[in-house]
């Protein structure tokens, strides 16, 4: 239900061997909310996503999803529990068709259910529907991002984590991707955690935002308040 914390991260630290990239990150994501994490190159956004999706060990602190710890839990277990991560750079299978990529997204589920779900998910991305038989490698950057998101949805996530969905995407396609994300949240009550460098577009659809710098949260608040904040405008919106 809205108003219930689905994801609670408390004082989480993670890194690469002896190099610490996150220093005690705390954040909360309510069910059916869109929360964005903003920050410059190297701030630790990708590291956070990877720590929350079992791709990187958590060295300190806690992360709970729906009341259960998710720190240092294998990725496949997290996917089955409903945490799905769409990585930076999309990682679609270039040699496979759009449909084949989508089928792979539903690998944890019965095949017949997945076939029906593909049709449903494609309603959010009409552009992909037109290219269903094309090889993923022939799609534009924006279409590949749509495919990566749609493939993530095929796993039936409760929490979808997106790492820089606007990266390498033409402006008009960005708008269409973010509009689709908002529509998906509204209709499916899906919870979204979005990491972005493009603060403008992320704050536009988010309910709440966090700004991280060198692995620490330096600002947080309602997305509308952050969008109007002068410091943020100067640092991330070129204004
Ligand atoms: P970007 O937008 O470039 O992805 P980011 O905010 O996602 O930036 P991270 O990729 O999480 O930042 O990087 C956070 C810190 O961790 C940086 O100082 C980076 O140099 C370091 N780092 C990232 N990956 C590795 C790695 N594989 N080994 C060692 N250090 C790394």
UniProtKB/TrEMBL annotation:
Question: What is an annotated GO biological process for this record, any one?
Answer: L-amino acid transport
Alphabetically ordered keywords of this record? Amino-acid transport, ATP-binding, Cell membrane, Membrane, Nucleotide-binding, Transport
The record, for InterPro entries, names: AAA+_ATPase, ABC_transporter-like_ATP-bd, ABC_transporter-like_CS, BCAA_Transport_ATP-bd_LivF, P-loop_NTPase
Q: Does the keyword Cell membrane apply?
A: yes
Question: GO molecular function, one example?
Answer: branched-chain amino acid transmembrane transporter activity
Family annotation (PROSITE patterns): ABC_TRANSPORTER_1, ABC_TRANSPORTER_2
Which positions fall inside the ABC transporter domain?
7-239
| Family assignment from sequence similarity | Belongs to the ABC transporter superfamily.
Q: What is this protein called?
A: ABC transporter ATP-binding protein
Query: What is the protein's species of origin?
Result: Lampropedia aestuarii
């Amino acid at each position: 239900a809205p108003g219930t914390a689905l994801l609670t991260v408390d004082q989480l630290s993670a890194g690469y061997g002896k190099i610490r990239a996150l220093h005690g990150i705390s954040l909360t994501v309510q069910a059916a909310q869109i929360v964005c994490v903003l920050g410059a190159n190297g701030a630790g956004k990708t590291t956070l996503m990877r720590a929350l999706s079992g791709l990187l060990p958590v060295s300190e602190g806690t992360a709970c999803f729906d009341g259960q710890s998710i720190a240092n839990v294998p990725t496949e277990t997290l996917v089955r529990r409903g945490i799905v991560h769409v990585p930076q750079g999309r990682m679609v299978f270039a040699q496979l068709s759009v449909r084949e990529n989508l089928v792979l997204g539903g690998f944890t589920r019965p095949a017949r259910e997945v076939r029906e779900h593909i049709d449903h998910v494609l309603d959010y991305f009409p552009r992909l529907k037109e290219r269903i038989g094309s090889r993923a490698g022939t799609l534009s950057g924006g279409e590949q991002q749509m495919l990566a998101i749609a493939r993530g949805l095929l796993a039936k996530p409760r929490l979808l984590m997106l790492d820089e969905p606007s990266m390498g995407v033409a402006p008009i396609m960005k708008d269409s991707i973010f509009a689709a994300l908002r529509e998906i949240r509204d209709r499916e009550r899906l919870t979204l955690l979005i990491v972005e460098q493009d603060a403008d577009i992320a704050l536009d659809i988010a309910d709440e935002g966090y700004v991280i710098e060198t692995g620490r949260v330096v600002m947080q608040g309602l997305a509308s308040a952050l969008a109007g904040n002068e410091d943020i405008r100067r640092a991330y919106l070129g204004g």
